[in-house]
Amino acid sequence: MNTKIGVLVMSYGTPESMDQVEAYYTHIRRGHPPTPEQLQELTERYEAIVGGVFPLRANTDKQVTALQETLERLNPGTDKQFVCYQGLKHARPFIEDGVEQMARDGIKKAVGIVLAPHYSVMSIGGYIKRAQEKASELGIEMSFVHSYHLHPKLIKAFADRVCTKLDQFKEGGANRDQVRVLFSAHSLPERILQMGDPYQDQLMETAGAVAAEAGVNNWQFTWQSAGRTADPWLGPDILDTLRSLSQEQVEDVLVAPVGFVSDHLEVLYDLDIEAKTIAKELDMRLERIESLGTDPLYMETLAECVLMQIADWE
């Protein structure tokens, strides 16, 4: 008899259509509606991305489907059947919706994993808290993958993309070693450092491992997509970094956003539009590695983490 094990795949979420942008932004702001100016700015960012918000939701849907297929492939002929569910932080199906669907399907044991490799109490910690509370309420035994920032297949997937893009610089006449590789991730408020949060350290470890795997020596770390609050956020921001690199007479830059695994607003707008615009003004060539998406190495990273979590039960 097969034992059904639920896999709650969690991510930030994005609107499904333009008319959902205001509700999405209101949820991010903990129930406080955005000002007309804030709503207009966010709407314009979505409109600036080719195809609007729709491909962003599709990206996550594809990752959940691909993980389901990978788990089935890596776990053939056993008495365990894995069923993947989606739970989003700021859009439907919410994290709680995913857990409730598991309960309706008779799931008694489940694993939660987030489509983000690095742990912070302000990010992954929040996902886990919400899922655990709902699972406890519904009688589901649930455990969680907290991070997977040094999984060898994740590192290889990122390194392969870095090497592919560096080869394109070479084809354009640039010396590979002269290209400055900028590893980036979503900034968080600086107060996490006083909390002993592992987020920054894990990101630095990922960047160092990817650089070593790709044979890159000319690299540094930068931050992006900081929130607009009174509190200071981790920096320097990538736009400031680009201006500094221009003063160093760096002409070729490759951005590797290792804090992200999918194309969404922080990648398609903050990097592909905003950062590229600044780079062009500085007469600098800026390229970005492709996002992992449903890369088989990334899907195997997630699947192996889930299977390891199951092994810990036994």
Task: For the structure shown, list the relevant keywords.
single chain; alpha/beta; 2 domains; Rossmann fold; 314 residues; 12 helices; 4-stranded parallel β-sheet
Explain what you see.
The protein is 47% helix and 16% strand. The chain is α/β, with parallel strands linked by helices. The protein folds into 2 domains: 3-148 and 294-311, Rossmann fold (3-Layer(aba) Sandwich), CATH 3.40.50.1400; 152-288, Rossmann fold (3-Layer(aba) Sandwich), CATH 3.40.50.1400. The strands form 2 sheets. It has a 4-stranded parallel beta sheet with strand order 2-1-3-4, sandwiched between helices. Strands 6-5-7-8 form a 4-stranded parallel beta sheet, sandwiched between helices. Strand 3 (109-114), helix 5 (124-138) and strand 4 (141-144) form a beta-alpha-beta unit. Helix 4 packs parallel to helix 5 (124-138). The chain is globular, with a radius of gyration of 20 Å. The two termini are 17 Å apart. 40% of the residues are buried.
Short summary:
By secondary structure, the chain is an alpha/beta fold. It is built from 12 helices and 8 strands.
Give a short account of the largest sheet.
4 strands, parallel
CATH class of the largest domain: Alpha Beta
Order of helices and strands: EHHHEHEHEHEHHEHEHHEH
Distance from N terminus to C terminus (CA atoms, Å) equals 17 Å
Could you give the order of strands across the largest sheet? 2-1-3-4
Query: Which segments are poorly predicted (pLDDT under 50) over 5 or more consecutive residues?
Result: none
Strand content: 15-25%
Question: Averaged pLDDT, please?
Answer: 95
Structural class call reads alpha/beta
Domain tally: 2
Q: What is the CA-based Rg, rounded?
A: 20 Å
What is the number of helices?
Answer: 12
The CATH level-2 architecture of the largest domain is identified as: 3-Layer(aba) Sandwich
CATH fold-level name of the largest domain:
Rossmann fold
Mass-distribution shape: globular
The helix fraction, in percent, is 40-55%
Q: Please give the number of β-strands.
A: 8
